Amino acid sequence: KSWEDILVSRVGHIICYSAKGMPGQSMDKVTLLKDLGIEGDYHATGGDRQVTLISQKAKGWMRAKEVPGFCFAKFKENIVVEDLLLEGLPEEGQLVVGEALLQLTPTRKTCYEKYCTLVHEKEVCKLIQEVRFARVKAGGVITVGMEIIVKETSP
């Protein structure tokens, strides 16, 4: 199944974290910086976790939980993706958002099994499935509501 040039989603929400330990700020528009991340975000230091994506479905699941998982308060997403299950995307697929290009990384969210109530209750955590990290391969301005197009990387 090819994902080449398929419009699959939109940017639902953007959050920027200006300093460690501080709450995120909802943004209508941000600039993605090549090889770094979101301009003004303290996570924008390069590496495999330049931008953190979560599906809208997983975000809703988190809100609905009566007893939150261990990392719910620690987890810091940058982009909430509408109507797209991130788990099924190609391992190193690319997301085109306007002029920006995000390269998904094989790095996945870590589970803290020892401390997590969900694991102890034998529940599957949607964060493990529906959180993806990406590198910024081409920078650009992105806004809430922008189309997201999935592209497979060339072999």
What does this molecule look like?
The protein has 155 residues and is mainly beta. Helices cover 12% and strands 35% of the residues. The protein is built from three helices and eleven strands, in the order βββββαβββααβββ. A seven-stranded mixed beta barrel has the order 1-6-5-9-8-7-11. A hairpin with a 3-residue loop joins strand 3 and strand 4. The mean pLDDT is 86.
Oligomer designation: single chain
Q: How many strand segments?
A: 11
Radius of gyration: 15 Å
Q: State the separation between the terminal residues, measured CA to CA.
A: 15 Å
What's the main sheet like?
7 strands, mixed, barrel
Overall mean pLDDT:
86
**Rough outline:** globular
Helical proportion, percent range: 10-25%
- What structural class do you assign from the helix and strand content? mainly beta
The stretches of 5 or more residues where confidence is low (pLDDT under 50) are none
Instruction: List the strand order in the largest sheet.
Output: 1-6-5-9-8-7-11
Residues in β-strands, percent: 35-45%
How would you spell out the order of helices and strands?
A: EEEEEHEEEHHEEE
- DSSP helix count? 3
Fold blueprint:
Layout: E1 6-16, E2 25-27, E3 29-33, E4 37-38, E5 51-55, H1 56-64, E6 79-81, E7 94-97, E8 100-104, H2 117-120, H3 126-130, E9 131-138, E10 140-143, E11 147-151
Parallel strand pairs: 5-6
Antiparallel strand pairs: 1-2, 1-6, 1-11, 3-4, 3-10, 5-9, 7-8, 7-11, 8-9
Brief sketch in words of this structure:
With 155 residues, this protein is mainly β.
